[in-house]
Write a structure and sequence with these properties.
The chain is built from seven helices and four strands, in the order ααβαααββαβα. It is mainly α and about 140 residues long. The strands form two sheets. The protein has a two-stranded antiparallel ribbon. It has a two-stranded antiparallel ribbon with strand order 2-3. Belongs to the chaperonin (HSP60) family. Belongs to the TCP-1 chaperonin family.
Length: about 140
Amino acid sequence: LQERLAKLAGGVAVIRVGGATEVEVKEKKDRVDDALNATRAAVEEGIVAGGGTALLRAANALAIKGSNPDQEAGINIVRRALQAPARQIATNAGEEAAIIVGKVLENNADTFGYNTATGQFGDLIALGIVDPVKVVRSA
């Protein structure tokens, strides 16, 4: 349905990309291509809170227990892998990942997360910090 609506309402757009050097133009063109692909993915499957928040919540919701130590180790590996994007984003922003992740998980709202651009916590969907579900699912 979303695809049909997009085709009916959509049209053709021309995006002009310019820059001072050929390298700059290529970089900007790559960014536009990435943005277009992310937008298409969002139209196809929807969006979730960005910044690794959706995966962080998924890790927190993973409340299964293994029946032996090997299964427990596997479950813990999956939990840590789901937490890794949010932790890395916080670290890249110069923040202490454990503190940021802890504060995000203290709040029960699914869309609550950390905005690295402003250094503040809030509703990431309202702030426009989103990830396409298709990208999160296939990552």
